[in-house]
Amino acid sequence: MRKSRFTEEQIIGMIKEQEAGLPTAEVCRKHGLSPATFYKLKAKYGGLEVSEARRLRLLEEENSKLKRLLAEWVAARRAAQRGAVRQPRRCPT
Q1: What is the Cα 73 distance to its own chain's centre?
Q2: CB-CB neighbours of 12 under 10 Å
Q3: What angle do CA 18, 19, 23 make, to 5 degrees?
Q4: Can you give the pTM of this predicted structure?
């Protein structure tokens, strides 16, 4: 996952600026991001406090690690099962 240019504090600060009445275009220009990116961040972090945003990031990182571990385990299990299955012997004629 790509690392964000902005910290959780900065993102929540931008959202609060916009909610306080600053036009979205002005917030985007001030911080150097597109309106589409702003609305994507707002959808993800809108309504969260900084501590909640940090917790969300940590949970997403942990979930990603667990998914990777599960995928590795499944791949190893399938490889072991393929190795355990023997080819049938052919009877000599």
Answers
A1: 21
A2: 21
A3: 35
A4: 0.65
